User: Fold these one by one.
Assistant:
Number 1:
Amino acid sequence: MKIGIDARMYGPRCSGLGRYIQQLILNLEGQDKENSYIIFLNKENFDDYKPIENNFKKVLVDIPWYSWGEQIKFLKILNKENLDLMHFPHFNVPIFYYKKYIVTIHDLIMYHFPRPEASTRSKIIFYLKDKVHRFVLKNACKKSSKILTTSEFTKKDLIKYLKINSEKIKVTYQAPFCKKDKIASKKILKILNLEDKKYLLYVGNAYPHKNLENLIKAWNIFINNLDFENYYLVLVGKNSYFYEKLFSSSDFQKSKNIIFTGFVPDEDLQSLYENAENYIFPSLYEGFGLPPLEAMSYGIPVLSSNASCLPEILADSVLYFDPVSPENIADTMKFFLEDKILQMELQQKSRQHVKSFSSERLARETLEEYKKIMN
């Protein structure tokens, strides 16, 4: 069987989706010696993946996702490869691709946050783009042989919003990526002047649904009214339009003890995680919730929003708060930092809970679906 995988979003550059693709391919390579694989990569990540097994071959597809080239040029390349099965790990499937394929739907955020402020485009362009994306998504789900999701929450969303038959959907949980050295370099702590400071950590982007506005409001309450003026909030993420928008807000302008690091490579993230008091995740919507699991894999407790799929994924291993209430977020931070026993309990639970997610299982269950379709 000849299987193709669209890996143009391969690697950490594309956040959780890129991690998913990376985990899947690397573990399929370790498990499947029978089928042949064509891995489609773009110019930016072509050298990031180096096949080890002879049955895995990479093909350069220098075509941006969500583009007209994706619908026309990529379609020609796919048809030329004459695949038995294609796996699209995102909804951006060429609408005229009629051969057998599996699609992974990570979330339906466009149905939960259909707001122009979630884009840098004009309102007219945003609404046109939103309509096109919804059409492509529905078409991808309708024509697919199987739909994979990374949570029961997203599966229920597909049933509710797109009227998909539940039997067509298979949940395959993702796993956190944790690149750990035995002794982490503390160079980044010295650069950021964090060596002797207590801090709470957030790693991720600043899209509106990540809810950093309410986190900043909560932080101001925490620092100014709850006597924690010696603590710091560290925000890690690639600078963007949305971070700049956050920085220009009145709440951020009057805040203190907030450090924005910009992008931090994996080799420096370890010490930031391991020396934090906790990881805080205020998101309003997630299809899986990878960041708090990655924090757990570094051995730190997590304070999390109780929204969307997060209770499903994180279970009882974290301390939850109401993400729309800055007061409740601030009170939860205070409650956690004042209870040493709770801190140790959450740390222990986190270390055990994160073990229940496996990239090997993700690949194994995905491979099983490939075989079911072709048999």
Number 2:
Amino acid sequence: MPFLNRPFLAYQLAWLRAHGVTDVVLACSYRVDDVKAALGDGASLGTRLRYVIETEPLGTGGGVRNASDLARGTIFVLNGDVLADVDLSAMRRFHTDHGARATIYVTPVEDPRAYGLVETASDARVTRFREKPGADEAITTNRINAGVYLLDAQLLARIPAGRPVSIEREFFPALITDGIPLYAWEGSGYWRDIGSPAAYLAAQLDLLDERVRTDLSPVGERRGGAWIATNATVSPGAIIIPPVVVGPGATLAAGSRIGPHAVLGSGVRVQSGARIERSVLWERSEIGVDAALDGCVIAAGGRVGDGAALGAGTVLESGAVVAANAKLPQLS
């Protein structure tokens, strides 16, 4: 998934690298060749990257178990859809100081029902793990499983091999039942689950606003608050309102207005009079004359006709076409 015109996983690898983790295994099952094409062996990102492939999806626990032959010592396990900048080195110190064999990074959220709730004793030891409580269940904590774990690799042998396993519903509750030291660490910093189009868009806007600490800059040459690829074509009459990212080979016609908060992928074409803000456009998208986009995600090759208006919440699949003068109102 592109994030400011980089693969999203590049941000996770940069986060790990900032805390001394450079040997990384990717547990993959979907579009593995695309992932390999985007990330390669990780050398360009300062990591050693290896791939373990699931012939069929094995779930959050089974996928980790499938990669366990490459795991030694103490390992970080990350969900692949989390953007964060918390101090993983501090998490590791906490893990060691508490004699933990497993540590879960937890974070408070306003509405925890969509996540796994983590209940703890006064010493931060986990006493109960509740995965996505129902609407009729009482909420006992707003601290949720944030999808980052520090584990003794030997524990992975407890996960059944060769079948789908939930790390949240099976593995962690079993650790509690068997008295294995499982602790919760609450770190301060940015955290967002990007597993919905709205969250995917919001996370990129946060990166544009530099609310996320990362040493991975957007693709392009920085010009004030904008990053513009060297081979992008920006007509003299085009207006750019930072923060904005303009990808390689993109073309902005005179009279177009880009930003604030816009990400244009490689080969995007924006015609005269078009206005784009708070939106992410993937590669080869085309935006017609006088079209207006606000709060949209346009996948690869999407085409928006002349005079069309796309409001907040609009998401176009790859290759989708919006007719001229069509109106896609804000979604509730």
